[in-house]
Amino acid sequence: MSIQSYIIKKILRKVVPTDEDFSLRRKKTDELAGKNSLAKNVNIKEVQLGSVMCEWAYIENAPLDKVIIYLHGGGFCIGSINTYRHFTSRLAKVTGIRVLYVEYRLAPEHPFPKALEDVITVYQSLLSQGISSGNIIFMGDSAGAGLCLSTTLALRDKGESLPTALILYSPWTDLTLTSKSLKTNEKKDPLVSINDQKNLVKAYIKEKDVKNPLVSPRFGNFNGFPPILIHTGTDEILLDDSLYLEEKVKKAGVEVTLKLWKGMFHVFSIFPDHTPEGKKSLKEVVTFIHSKWGTAY
Fold it and tell me: Does the pLDDT of residue 269 top 70, yes or no?
């Protein structure tokens, strides 16, 4: 772990909002994220697909036939376009591909399966516009990464065409909260705590089955899935979520690459300007994306 990452971990532990009032935490999170600058020469455009608000981030002359759908983290309760614009703008710039941020509905106002329904709506809207599934990649962090998996499970079970690949940062795949790393890494992870996870789960699923694969993808069947790239820090409490996911995906015969970053914290990859590890993680993602499409940038 770099000295920059060590410092960032110390800072995050002090500044990341942890309010149990989700409305207040959303406001504080957006204010904190607003201190990050956007990537230069990237266009931002709001759009509504079906009933779902989204936002495009793209550079001039970006191909119109390819899309990275980005699903944000925040435990299904926190996060907005304002929270993630600093990252989606960078993702659009370094890949040269249009990035579509999905403003899916949040719990507890809109519990499961509302977020899942919104992502499916956006995906189907893109297909109806003539963009092929082979030219779409799902990408997300934490709960958003889990939602990438849940959406793909739902699409497959409906017999619909699937995206060409999934890119998952620190995926939250098991909402039963029984993994050992929840306890062994809790003091190491500056962003996530067990008590907070419990509150998020309660808000998201209400009284529904937590082992439903569309809630906890770890319990799903991954037969027929597209290739998956996972980037996870060894010091995060959701470490086991990635380890168990990799094991199950491999058993299904699916191409999967799990990159473990020593000493790194939850979703460090969405801060490429703050740590050398985050910058390298993004670079590896760019390589993965273009390898799947046979393109270069």
Answer: yes
Order the strands of the 43-49 sheet from edge to edge: 43-49, 52-58, 98-102, 67-71, 136-141, 165-169, 228-233, 256-261
One DSSP character per residue, 160-214 reads ----SEEEEES----TT---THHHHTTTT-SS--HHHHHHHHHHHHTTS-TT-TT
Q: Tokens 């670079």 — which residue?
A: 283
Cβ atoms 57, 88 nearer than 8 A: yes
**Cα 27 from Cα 79, distance rounded (Å):** 9
**H helical segments located in the chain:** 3-15, 22-33, 81-95, 114-128, 143-157, 181-184, 194-205, 239-251, 276-293
List, for residues 119-159, the tens digit of each pLDDT value.
Answer: 999 999 999 999 999 999 999 999 999 999 999 999 999 99
Q: Are 44 and 59 in contact (CB under 8 A)?
A: no
**CA atoms of 53 and 56, how far apart (whole Å):** 10
Tokens of 127: 């297909």
Looking at domain 3-292, its CATH class is alpha beta
The answer to whether the pTM exceeds 0.85 is yes
- Region of residue 182 (phi > 0: left; psi between -120 and 50: alpha; otherwise: beta): alpha
The catalytic residues are 142, 236
Strand 67-71 relative to strand 98-102, pairing: parallel
Distance in angstroms (rounded) separating the CA atoms of residues 8 and 251: 37
Dihedral angle sign, alpha carbons of residues 173, 165, 247, 187: negative
Q: Cis before residue 113, ω within 30 degrees of 0? A: yes
Ordered by start, the domain boundaries in the chain are 3-292
pLDDT digits (tens, 9 = 90+) for 78-96: 999 999 999 999 999 999 9
